[in-house]
Fold Recombination protein RecR.
Amino acid sequence: MADTHALATLVQALKGLPGVGVKSASRMAFHLLQHDRATAMQLAQALSHAVAHVRHCERCHTFTEADICDTCADASRDHSQLCVVETPADQSAVERTGTYRGLYFVLMGKLSPLDGIGPHDIGLAKLRQRASEEGLREVILATNFTAEGEATAHVIAEMLKSLGLRVTRLARGVPAGSELEYVDLGTIAHALVDRR
Amino acid sequence: MADTHALATLVQALKGLPGVGVKSASRMAFHLLQHDRATAMQLAQALSHAVAHVRHCERCHTFTEADICDTCADASRDHSQLCVVETPADQSAVERTGTYRGLYFVLMGKLSPLDGIGPHDIGLAKLRQRASEEGLREVILATNFTAEGEATAHVIAEMLKSLGLRVTRLARGVPAGSELEYVDLGTIAHALVDRR
Ligand SMILES: [Zn+2]
Ligand SMILES: [Zn+2]
């Protein structure tokens, strides 16, 4: 696109965003430079600022700008429960249910041998240490119900077995509001097995 | 997502990119901060650099870092022909055919009354002045074959009528390599009208 090196470099950098191919990257670069340089500058500043200031909570590994995140620092929460999730977005989903008052451990990923993501990458040693702390009674495994999420939950359950904790998993079942006719058979089968 | 203001600001800025909603923006922010801070820094720098250095060619309006772009400055090109395109990407498509050796005028958009884009926004006064220069014999209208591209071509053709130039339009027709059976009827109708 045109003869500018600055533009080619920008298209290349935008292509580094997940889900953005060369066509989208070119369209984004054109839009920013032709119609919205203010957004381009805001994005540049937001990126620099986030890279400089966002790090991981020492207790739960989620993103924070402090040593310890607001959730971990909240004395009013139930420190006897630890809910293990894959990402901050998953943590946010559990929070929004308004039904959980315990603490979290955020893996910031999931075991994925094919992508070279092993126990170290998702902080399992740290989780083991965290789970050994006095006062903790239950670890709830809330990784996703995908093949990798299930495998991750299984590995963590095995790891925590010897600690004398209650290790639970979110129930599988039929989503609220759905009609059985339209629910996939695997889900119905799991709901039968996990019936209350 | 988590409790950091820097992260929320970054998600908001990424949402400013065309075609990026809040879900994609969150996924991008997570990916950059968790797995690829080098790309985040490169993107920040590429944005700042492009905003600071990319401007418009004084002759053809395309993006350039100099006063006049390489194409306009190329004395070996045919200065008697001017091809009018909507974007640098369209210019690049015409260039890649290897069949055109004239100059360009890049509108950097198209007439679009509903979006508030009028003649001034696509530099029509500049184009008129450019088309009046000595030595120019032909203006080829290569705007897109969409409703807005056709309307833009029509307005430009009307504007240049009085200048005594040859004003031509890219031929509409059946795409090379296609089977008539699968070509839409409007395209076949146009190919019949424009038959050689
Ligand atoms: Zn924390
Ligand atoms: Zn130029």
